[in-house]
């Protein structure tokens, strides 16, 4: 293992990725962090690169949003290398869950100081995720949000596409198996969270952390999209479980079936589909923290 050398992975498609690279390199050099970059024409996945280069580096620094982190998750799990986060995405929900600084200089300072804490990862059909998995409305939202729209419109893009989609959303039937019981429900959206924040400002559960060894589940069982409008303040605060038309609980293991296969959105990326089994991987990845 090379002393104090990091593998630097910056997503050139993320909102601030490409334009931030020169500054990132400058700050890393200033902080005395040696780093290795992949050649521009490299086509392997971030996780594959982490595994291949694991004996040449002693940490991984990922610059991008939650999707960029997600694409590195498997490699981090397989190698046990610590993760440094440079929040260069649209929403940076994981960085906010962990209380990581959102400006670059301070984020790199945190990595340079070298203090790490182990975090949990969620797992959906064997695919790891940092923040949240969802089925229904926000998986449909992920399908409609192109990279181009995300870059051009940022958070406004989420809002515009979401409003259009909401108006045409329909309830679907799902069966849950967890903690020795089975429940059937009609819902607009199911979410299973490992962290606290997702979707650019929504909160899975008010006091959720990525270190509590639990998955937080909620289901929005509203029959009309306009009823969601009165739920929005609660969804932002993570207190939606107090409402009658929202089902919420915490668990370590959960299986969801739907009548026809539905896409499962993990950290903003569509990675698998129902039926889906969720598990928690406790203390799975060390992360540099303030």
TrEMBL record:
GO terms under biological process: phospholipid biosynthetic process
Species: Phyllobacterium bourgognense
Listed PROSITE patterns: DAGK
Gene Ontology MF, one: kinase activity
Gene3D superfamilies: 2.60.200.40, Probable inorganic polyphosphate/atp-NAD kinase, domain 1 (3.40.50.10330)
Domain of life, source organism: Bacteria
Identification of the protein by name: YegS/Rv2252/BmrU family lipid kinase
Keywords, in A-Z order: ATP-binding, Kinase, Nucleotide-binding, Transferase
Chain ranges of the DAGKc domain: 1-128
A Pfam entry, by short name: DAGK_cat
